[in-house]
Amino acid sequence: MIGKFGSSHPKYSSSIYPLNYGYIPNTTSGDGEPLDCYILGVFNPVETFTGKCIAIIHRNNDDDDKLIIVPEGKNYTNEQIEALLEFQEQYFHHIIIRPKNYLEFNATLPELSVSNLEKSLKFYQTLGFKINYERKENKFAFISLGKVQFMLQEISKNNKWDIGKLTYPFGNGINFQLDVTNLELIYKSLTSHNYQIAFDIEENWYRQGDQLLGSKEFLVQDPDGYLLRISEDLGIKNIQQ
Predict the structure, then answer these.
(1) Whole-angstrom Cα distance, residue 33 to residue 169?
(2) Separation CA 176–CA 39 (nearest Å)
(3) How far apart are CA 174 and CA 215, in angstroms?
(4) What are the chain's domains?
(5) Listed residue (187, 169, 178) closest to 229, CA to CA
(6) Prior bond to 169 cis, omega within 30?
(7) pLDDT tens, 66-75?
(8) What is the tens place of the pLDDT at every residue in 38-63?
(9) What's the confidence (pLDDT) of residue 6?
(10) DSSP state of 44
(11) Which of 51, 55, 66, 163 has the smallest number of Cβ neighbours within 10 A?
């Protein structure tokens, strides 16, 4: 180990390691030294450790990448990794590299019952969503647009999730706000494919305390009538006294 949990940094004694920090034997990093690693999920000093690599910290202004090692069965989100490594990585410009199939799930994740999955996927892909994975045998899909995530499930006769009769428009009484950075492109994509816009683009400012939060937004309904509010941030301004 280069730095054990609770020990002082060899050069900066006031800096205490909040985790175990070591290296992989018989490897060579960009700096000619063995490949370093952070060990997360082990909150006591260790001499050696065997685990799995879940991510790589790639430093853009240094040639010394770091592996993120955790015990089997453990995982950490990018946000958690950043928080745990801030003591050292705050001094470097870096990115977190994950496997191509890595997916970070939101804490709130709506699942929409849809009448025709193929038809719904066509709409959401036109809107800009990508299909992260599918279970075609169950007529299920997980889709995302940036940090917006939905599950789509085609209605079946014995669906335990349906607690009442579904009639169009589905989801009456709720709308989903989708925060995007390319509202105009999404609008053009939908209209060019002849999807009807429920409420055209407008600029709105909503009060929060003594400030106004701005957004450009429009409303569109998906094939089953779920109401989506496509919203692009316009910033903040103070309320005029």
Answers:
(1) 62
(2) 39
(3) 19
(4) 20-97 (3.90.80.10), 111-238 (3.10.180.10)
(5) 178
(6) yes
(7) 999 999 999 9
(8) 999 998 999 999 999 999 999 998 88
(9) 81
(10) S
(11) 163
